[in-house]
Design brief:
Length: 217
């Protein structure tokens, strides 16, 4: 089957893209409203794209009536947001935070989530998140019905049990994030496995990097 994306309606493009590009990690994004309330919203149009500078990207769609969502309104005003990663412990609360509440509703509190002040930005993070990334907006790219937000990570708070004893790598027995597949279907990373390069790969790579010597005349 072939699909001409230049001719498809947006909802058909959404269906195909989200059905085949997955699983997509979930960012439970916390921001501060103008009135000082904590806002939390789950987003599956999210990923990390760079470590130097450390950049994460969010895609925030407008509401059905064309109005901007509270998260985007808060980000435009403050230029700050926090990404809270989601595991099974937070899954049900994450879904509750996706309800279309009024701007003055404290969504983490409604969902039963404890929070604490971020260290470098004016927002709160979810205390039981495996990892919270405090971000400052690097730029926002606007489209008619969506904004693409590039955020620079300035602070990361990791739950102690999610790291190995040396504090260098994630503990896969503990950190098992959930991700979205399509529609209301999700997946949890509870069956992880290693894929290693073959032993010969180091020789192959070394050969590719060795400077070519000029042939003797």
């Amino acid at each position: 089957m072939e699909f001409d994306f230049t001719q498809l309606p947006p909802q058909d493009r959404y269906r195909l893209l989200t059905n085949f590009v997955g699983p997509r990690p979930i960012a439970l994004v916390t921001t501060r409203s103008e009135g000082g309330h904590s806002n939390a919203a789950p987003m599956s149009f999210f990923n990390v794209f760079s470590q130097d500078p450390p950049i994460v990207i969010l895609g925030v769609q407008t509401r059905g009536d064309g109005q901007e969502k509270d998260t985007l309104v808060n980000i435009r005003r403050s230029s700050q947001f926090c990404v809270n990663m989601v595991d099974m412990e937070l899954a049900e609360a994450m879904i509750l935070c996706g309800v279309n509440f009024a701007p003055d509703v404290d969504e983490p509190a409604f969902a039963g989530l404890d929070t604490a002040p971020c260290r470098q930005i004016d927002a709160h993070y979810i205390t039981r998140t495996p990892c919270a990334m405090e971000c400052r907006v690097e730029r926002i790219i606007d489209f008619p019905s969506r904004a693409i937000i590039l955020g620079e990570v300035v602070e990361m708070t990791v739950r102690d049990d999610c790291m190995d004893a040396q504090g260098r790598y994630v503990n896969p027995d503990v950190y098992q994030p959930i991700a979205r597949l399509h529609a209301d279907n999700y997946i949890v990373a509870d069956r992880q496995f290693e894929l290693l390069k073959p032993a010969e790969a180091a020789t192959w790579e070394a050969a590719q990097l060795t400077p070519k010597t000029a042939k003797a005349r």
